[in-house]
Amino acid sequence: MVKKIIFILYILVLVCMAAATIVEKSQGTDYAHAHYYGAWWFILIWAVLAALGAFYIIKRKVKCASTLALHLSFIIILLGALLTHVSAKRGMIHLRIGQPTDTYMAQDEEQGMKEEKLPFSLCLQKFEAKMHDGTNAVADYSSKFTVIDGDDKSEGEVSMNNIYSHRSYRLYQSSYDEDGKGSVLAINADPYGIPVTYTGYALLFISLVWMLFDPKGGYRKLLKSPLLKKGVLMTALILSMGNIQTLHAESATGNLQNAVLPKETAEKFGELHILYNDRICPVQTFALDFCKKIYGARSYQGLTAEQVLSGWVFYGNTWANEPFIKIKSGEMKTAMNLPDYASLNTFFNREMGGYTIGQYVQEYYNGQQDKFHQQAADIDGKIQIIMELREGVSLKVLPYTFTKNVKAIKDHPFIKAGTTTWFSPVDKLPQAVEQQHALYIKNVFSLLNGDIKAGNMSRVNEFFVKMKKYQEVSSGNSLPTATQYKAERINNAFPFATILFMANLTLGFIALFYTIYRMTKKREIKALNIALPILLGVSFLALTFGLALRWIISGNIPMSNGYESMLTVAWFVMLISILMQLRIRIVMVFGFLISGFFLLVSHINQMDPAIGQMMPVLNSPLLSIHVSIIMMSYALLSLTFICGIMGICLRSHGEELQALSRIFLYPALTTMGFGIFIGAIWANVSWGNYWSWDSKETWALITFMIYAVVVHTQSLPVFRKPLVYHIYITLAFLSIAMTYFGVNYFLTGMHSYA
C-alpha cells in the first residue's frame, strides 16, 4: 500500500512540475510561483513523499550504505529548501553615490514588495561597468561601497559572480542606473537554509560516486554480468533520412561578372578587423555570417563570402537585382507568390506603395504575430541587414583610441581616456577625434569606391593593406591576439559540424552494415576492424580541434549557445565510445551514429554559430563545469535511447541490450545529479537563489526523476523485464528533448540565453 501511494505521489509531483512550466508561459512567473511552486499543497506533497520514502526504506531494511546515503541526501536537500522557504529574506537595495542607505525592498508573498530596515547601512562610493576593449559589450559590473555598522566602517565590493557578506546578509550585483551613479544590489539572508542545503548537496555528490563504486551496489554487479561478455548482437536498424538540400556551386552570372572584386582583393578585405556581434573579429567572419543569414549558404554562385560582402558594399545597385534573399516556405510566400530566392528589389515597388511588405511588418509589431506576419518580420530582418550594410552603418572597421577624457554629450556618452571606439564611415564622430583621423574615417571608403569603379585593383589592394596597418596602430588593446586571429581564420575555413556530420553518419552506416555482416556471416574484415576505430579517433580529434578553436577565439569554454552545446554533446558521445569500444565493440557504431545525428541537428537547425562575448553573469568556472557535466549526461542518455530502440526491435537480444543500457544509465544519473546541483550552487553564488524553479532547471529535475525510476528494480520489479525497460527508457528520452529544445523554443525562463 505504501509503495502504491509513493508511486502515485511521485507521478503527481512530476505532472505538477511539468504543468507549472506550461502555466508559467501563459500566466507569468509570479503566478506559477504563487499557485504551484510556493503553494502549501505542493510543499505538502513533497513532505509526504519524503516521509513515506524514508518509512519504506526503513520497512524494507535496506542495508546498502550508498543507497541509504543517496536517499538521505534528498531528504536533507528538501529540508534545506523548506528552511529557505520559511526563513529566508530576499530583496533589492538601491544605492546612489555618496548617499547612505539602510532600507531595502523585501519580497513578500502577500504584499509583493515592502520596505524593511537593515541592521547596518551602505554608502555607494563607485559603480563601474567594465567593457571588453573596443566594444560596447560589458565584461563586468562592479560596485564599491562602505558598510557602516554602528561605529564600525568597512569597505566592500561586489561584481558579477563575486558576492559580499556581512552578518547573515549576502549582497549581489543586480542592476545599475543609466547615469552610472547608482547601483542595485540583490540581498539574500538565509542563515539556515543554505548550510543545510549545501550539506545535502555534499552528501549527494559523495553518494552518487559511491553508487558507482560500491561493491554491493547494482552498478558493480552489472559490470560483472555475463550478458556483457557475450556481446550484443545486432541484425537490423532501419533509419530514414529526409531529403537533404545540397547547394550547388555555380559560376557567377553574367550580371555579376563586373560587380565583384577579384578573389585575392576580396580576401584582403576579409583580413581586416571589424566590430561585429560585440567583439572584434575578421571581416571574413562578418561576411560568412552575412551570407548564411541572408542566403542560407557560405557562398553564392561560386563567389566567396568576402566577394559577396564587398559586392554589396561597392556594387549595391547591381546586387539588388540578384536573387540573394532566401524565402522559407510559409503563408506569405504562397500568398505573394514569392520564389525560393528573391532579390532586394522584389520588395520595393513604387506602383505598390514602395516597400511591399512594410504594412505587414508594421502589423506584426502591432500584435498580429501569426505565421504570415512572422514571415514578413523574418524577411524584413534580412532586408534591414542588407540596408545597414549598403548604408555603411555595419562597417565598423575604423578604430580610434581617445587620448583624454571626453565629456558626455547628446550623441555620445562619457568616454574615458584610453578607450577605443570602432566607427563606421557614416558614424557621427565626437569632436575629440583628431582632425587627421576624422578625415580618414569619413573619406577612406569614398576613395576606395573611386578606385574600384576605375578598376584600379592594385591601388585597392594597397588601400586594404594600409587600412589594416591603421587598425593595428589606432586600435589600442582591442585587437584579438595573433593566435586568436589565426584560430578564427582556420575556424572560418572549415565548417566542422557540416564536414563531421557527413563523415560520422557515413562511417556509422558502414560500421552498422559491417556489424550485421560479421554477426550473420561469422566472418570479419581485418581492414575494417583496424580502420573504423582509427577513423572514430580522427573524427574525435577533428571535433576537439574545432571546439578548441572556438575556445581560443572567444576565451570562453564553447558551451554558450545551442550550436556549441550540440557540438559538445557529440564530443562526449565520441569520447565515451572510444573509451568503451575495446570492451564492447557495438559502442563504436553508436558513437558514429549518435554523434553524427547531434552534429546534423546543429547543421540543419541552423542554430546561430556566431561567436560573441559572454554575458558577465555567465563568466564563471562553476557554469562551465555545470554545463559540461550536463552535456556528458545527455550523451550517455542518448546511448540508452539507441539501446532502447534496438531492444524493442530486436527482442531476442533484449537482455544483452538492457545490460548495456544500464551500463550507460548509472553514470548518466551520476553526471546529471552533479550537473543539476552544481548549477544550483552557481545560481546561489551569482544571484542569491540556489533554486528558482526556472523552466530549464525544473525540467532537468523532472528528467532526473524520470530516469531514476528504472534503477529501482527491487521495489519496481516490472523494470527487470527487458521489453518494459526498453519502452520506458525510449519514451524517457522525450524529457531530454523537452529539457533541451522544448524549454528553449516553447517555454520561458532565465536559461533562454543558453
UniProtKB/TrEMBL annotation:
GO cellular component entries: plasma membrane
One Pfam short name: Cytochrom_C_asm
Presence of keyword S-adenosyl-L-methionine: no
GO BP: cytochrome complex assembly
Primary site of residence: membrane
Record has Membrane as a keyword: yes
Subcellular location as annotated: Membrane
Location of the Cytochrome c assembly protein domain: 559-751
Residues that span the membrane, as ranges: 36-58, 70-88, 493-516, 528-553, 565-582, 587-605, 625-651, 663-687, 699-719, 726-747
Membrane topology per record: Multi-pass membrane protein
Boundaries of every ResB-like domain copy: 67-186
InterPro entries assigned to the protein according to its UniProt record, in alphabetical order: Cyt_c_assembly (IPR002541), Cyt_c_biogenesis_CcsA/CcmC (IPR045062), ResB-like_domain (IPR007816)
Molecular function in Gene Ontology: heme binding
Keywords: Cytochrome c-type biogenesis, Membrane, Transmembrane, Transmembrane helix
Protein name: Cytochrome C biogenesis protein
Organism of derivation: Segatella copri
